[in-house]
Design brief:
Largest sheet: none
Radius of gyration: 16 Å
Protein name: VanZ-like domain-containing protein
Number of domains: 1
Strand content: under 5%
Order of helices and strands: HHHHH
InterPro entries: VanZ-like (IPR006976)
Pfam family, one: VanZ
Keywords: Membrane, Transmembrane, Transmembrane helix
């Protein structure tokens, strides 16, 4: 992958990751009447939304320790799920929190793997196994 493309991709991830976090907050705390659903199970929606957000954050903020990104996203999932108690027409469910947290951790892992391939010399690439390590 060419360097200008790689840098553009990482810059885009750095901009889009925080926007996705804002989207998660908005979509978690809007009233039920405002929701537009995909047709998939709610837990699948949670998993995919957090997985995409986490992957973008892992790519865009590759120098951040992965445990901090993971802890922040899991905490966000808990806060947003608990906050739904006070949103008209919404419910707070443990299974939705588990789906969100799982999506965040899977997305973080996928993002770090991709980062290791895109940005040699980062902490992610040093942690990734090489052919010699296998």
């Amino acid at each position: 992958m060419t360097s200008p493309f790689r840098h553009a991709l990482l810059r885009a991830a750095r901009a889009l990751g925080p926007l996705c976090v804002l989207a998660l907050v908005w979509l978690s705390w809007i009233p039920r009447d405002w929701e537009v659903r995909t047709g998939a199970a709610g837990q699948v929606e949670h998993l995919v939304a957090y997985m995409g957000t986490a992957a973008l954050l892992a790519l865009g903020f590759g120098r951040a320790p992965p445990w901090r990104l993971g802890a922040a996203l899991v905490a966000l999932a808990a806060i947003l799920e608990i906050g739904q108690i006070w949103v008209p027409g919404r419910t707070s469910q443990v299974i939705d929190f588990v789906s969100s947290a799982a999506g965040a951790l899977i997305g973080l892992a996928l993002g770090r793997i991709l980062l290791a391939r895109l940005a040699p010399g980062t902490a992610a690439s040093r942690a990734a196994p090489t052919v010699r390590d296998r």
